[in-house]
Amino acid sequence: MRTHLLFPSLLLLGSLSLTAACSSGSSGTSDPATVGARSGSSSGTVPVRTVDPSKVKGLRIVNNSSEDSSCPFATSYPDVPGAEAMTAAMKKYVERRLATFRSTCGDDSEAGDVGELNISHQILVASGDVLGVRLSTQDGTSAGGGLDTRTYWYDGQAGAYRLTLALIADGSQDALVAALKKQLKGREGTAADTVDGAFAGRSSLVDLLNDMTFTADGGLRVTFARGAVGAAPAGSYVVTLSRATVTPWLSSFGKRAQQQTERPSDSLDLGAAATPTPAVPTHTASGDDDTDCEKVVCVALTFDDGPAAPETATLLTYLARYQARATFFTVGQNVAAHPDLVRAEARAGQEVGNHSWSHPDLTKLTSEQVAYQLNRTSAAIKAATGKEPVLFRPPYGAVNSTVRGATTLSPVLWTLDPEDWKYPDAAKIAQSVIGKVKRNDVVLMHDIHPTSVAAVPQILRTLTADGYHFVTVSHLRATM
Fold this sequence. Notes:
- This protein is α/β, with parallel strands linked by helices.
- The protein is 31% helix and 20% strand.
- It has 15 helices and 17 strands.
- It has a six-stranded mixed beta sheet, with helices on both faces. Strands 11, 12, 13, 16 and 17 form a five-stranded parallel beta sheet that branches. A four-stranded antiparallel beta sheet has the order 1-10-9-8.
- Helix 8 links the parallel strand 11 and strand 12.
- Helix 13 packs parallel to helix 14.
């Protein structure tokens, strides 16, 4: 076993490049706890298993985002049938972080110095009666802008949400603490009194040990938040304890979580009364779009941040009703969760574009991080549709030379923003588009918001009557 020190920039890279590995025994190859870590024993480099979210029946991703340049944010967390108590805990955390962010992000901000809140998710275990999820939070308004990761656990056998510390038996917590302290002391950026102080008081353990998960070989990986056990500039620390060391300390739930991580079953049963299966539209495009935008009035509707269930399915039905084409700029982690909806978009003749994996401000990333965000999303889109995208929309419309140089995708911004993310009023959103739209406009909307989707029929009905034709961005560009 070995402790690893991660500096903030490297930890950020890890959080933005989580590997969506297959379920039923395959393991991830990248994890926030190992990216950028120093070389060490094999127990420190064994990956943490991740789950193909499309295998989780009834999964719904709860998304929220803002395009406000003075307060940009994007949040997401999974809602799994049967794990309502755990979903409520994640919702409470996300809403608290978002409320704090909104209260501070606009204060005395100068252009180019605006903070950003990004909360992304990763499903660690979804097997048998165990569900494990990690939330990764990057808050640009917090001191140092460091990453905060925490894990959430659900025990389907007991029908209860479990704190992370519940993986360890009550009588074994002292042994765990002693092992962790031994591994932390003497590491760069730590001091013995700082480490001892962090573990002082049993009540502090719940907050201190809020990110624990199992590696593919059954070891326990503990991630400590920036500044929790060492100097803040040193970043976050990760300790990996071997399977042989940690197994005797596990609670009965911890042992089941370990087992379902090492040898995941093919199904998840959390005791849900019903598992909804959202309908996927079967609309099929009759052929290529032959609209000549030099001769008729065209507009390109674009929808960001999806796919979302059931909103995207509803939107596709509205578009088919008016034989309207549109462009969907999809977020990779949502594509991974709902590839069937992305296939439905392509099948219906809609254009599928790239909107990054987890919706970060790309201008704040390195060229390598930008490439990973976009390449991983393009791969997910190709896996779902058989075709790689050619367009990308940078989150928040933030693009610079580094972003442009990191990809061959063509960037797409917009000419009309009805601010549908700000006003949850379908009639207001519809009128904002109808009253301002001009020929060849590219309209920005979001298919993660029910009110935005509800505004679309009125937009389609009214503008069709006014002689508008709805085309994809690529078609608009090719025929202008």
